[in-house]
Structure formats: C-alpha cells, structure tokens
Amino acid sequence: MLATLLSKIWCAPAATVPRPTPIGVSCLTRPSSESLAGRLAALQAELPPGCRLLAVSKGQPADRIREAVAAGQRSFGESRLQEAVLKQAELADLAPLDWHFIGRLQANKARGVVRHFGTIHSLDSLELARRLARIAAEEQRQPAVFFQVKFRPDPAKTGFDPAELCQHWPELGGLAPLRPLGLMTLAPLGLDEAERRVLFGECDALATQLGLPERSMGMSGDWPEAAEAGSTWVRIGSGLFGPRQIQ
Ligand SMILES: Cc1ncc(COP(=O)(O)O)c(C=O)c1O
C-alpha cells in the first residue's frame, strides 16, 4: 500500500500508451495438447491481441528450440548466459531468433548478455542499469529493457520497489542507449488467483504511469490472469516444453 501511495506521489503523469484489447477470462484455458507444436498453437490461439508468447527455453536442449521454431515460434527466453550462448551457436544455421534474457543478471555477466540478447527482462537495480548502459554504448548495441519490479515482499526475488523505481525514473528512463520498453514482474508463490490479478493490475498501472508500452507478466501457472491484466509478453516454459531437462 505504502509503495503504491509513494509511487503515485513520485511518478510523473502517465503518457497515453496503446493497450491490448481487454479479454474475457472465459476464453483463457490452459493448453492441453500432447505435442509442442499443438501446445504452441493452442496458446497462441488463447492469447489476447497485443499479448505475445515468450517461449522460456531455459533448461531445454537446442533441439527443442528447433522444434518450436519449426512450429513458428521465434522469441525465446533464457536465464543462464553460458547455456544460452551454447544453444545460440547450435542454432546458428537458423534465421536469427529473438532472444530475451529473463534471469537474475549478475554484474560480471552484463557484457555477455548485451552481446547475446536483444531484450533484457530482469533489469533490477539502478547500479545494473548504469552498468548496462555503459556496456551497451561500448558494444554499440541498444538493448530493449524491462525493469523488474517487486510489488510484494519476496525474499526469493530481486526487483525495484515501485517507489524506488519512480524516484530514480528521471535517470532510469533516459539511460541511452538502453531502450526502456516496460515493466516485468513475478507473482510470489502462495498468492491466490484474485491476489495475482491485483498484483498484475498494479504492474500494469505503474507501467502506464511511466508511459511504458509493454508489460512482461505471467508464467505457466498464472498467464491467464496476467494476460487479462494487460500483459504484452507472457513467459511460458514448463507449460509449453514440459519439465526442464538441463539443470
Ligand atoms: C523469470 C521467469 N519467467 C518465466 C519462467 C517460466 O516459468 P514456467 O516454467 O513456470 O512457465 C521462468 C522459469 O524459471 C522464469 O525464471
């Protein structure tokens, strides 16, 4: 509550941003098909307009990504730099894919992530933002970034406090050559569906307030609520590929 209140005080007025068409919950069912191509097709059919699927291929071998590409998927999410770089090399014969980094980003991995990913969903501190901007300039790259925000106390997760994000927004929003695209959030374990809806709604409202067009919200277990709340990227791993094979 306090964070929400503070963010209202500190944040600049919202710019008008395009929003996906609202959807009804009734059309959102979890995919049940046995094949990867079938699950992809089912998910794509369920996502509302303006909401895209990030296939979280973390923990999956390159062959599974190849299979997903053959079924039409081009955007993939990875959490571990070394694992991703190996798979990118294995898949180099394919037309360029759209790689998103979604894991906790350690300072010493920042350069590698800037070199190997076009989009970063896990920008979780001012210090990391400054470092990424400096490295991106040196590498002559302009990664799109999502600021990871923690809307509820969760010792297992990092992220900006909403009020802190707003306080530093004048600097964070203008850290060229980074391209601020949106906010990313994760719902802590233990929230029920109604509580997750509220949380995703807060993320959507803060993104609107900051004039950011995208929201990265929703995973296998909660994507329908996230999509309904205005997510523009749902990050789905196990619900698509099954259990992760690489630990
Ligand atoms: C940040 C993030 N988003 C999405 C996912 C995908 O989760 P799931 O396999 O539950 O869909 C993961 C998996 O670890 C993750 O770390």
Automatic annotation (TrEMBL):
<feature type="modified residue" description="N6-(pyridoxal phosphate)lysine">
    <location>
        <position position="58"/>
    </location>
</feature>
<dbReference type="GO" id="GO:0030170">
    <property type="term" value="F:pyridoxal phosphate binding"/>
</dbReference>
<dbReference type="InterPro" id="IPR029066">
    <property type="entry name" value="PLP-binding_barrel"/>
</dbReference>
<protein>
    <recommendedName>
        <fullName>Pyridoxal phosphate homeostasis protein</fullName>
    </recommendedName>
</protein>
<comment type="function">
    <text>Pyridoxal 5'-phosphate (PLP)-binding protein, which is involved in PLP homeostasis.</text>
</comment>
<dbReference type="Pfam" id="PF01168">
    <property type="entry name" value="Ala_racemase_N"/>
</dbReference>
<keyword id="KW-0663">Pyridoxal phosphate</keyword>
<feature type="domain" description="Alanine racemase N-terminal">
    <location>
        <begin position="34"/>
        <end position="244"/>
    </location>
</feature>
<dbReference type="InterPro" id="IPR011078">
    <property type="entry name" value="PyrdxlP_homeostasis"/>
</dbReference>
<dbReference type="InterPro" id="IPR001608">
    <property type="entry name" value="Ala_racemase_N"/>
</dbReference>
<comment type="similarity">
    <text>Belongs to the pyridoxal phosphate-binding protein YggS/PROSC family.</text>
</comment>
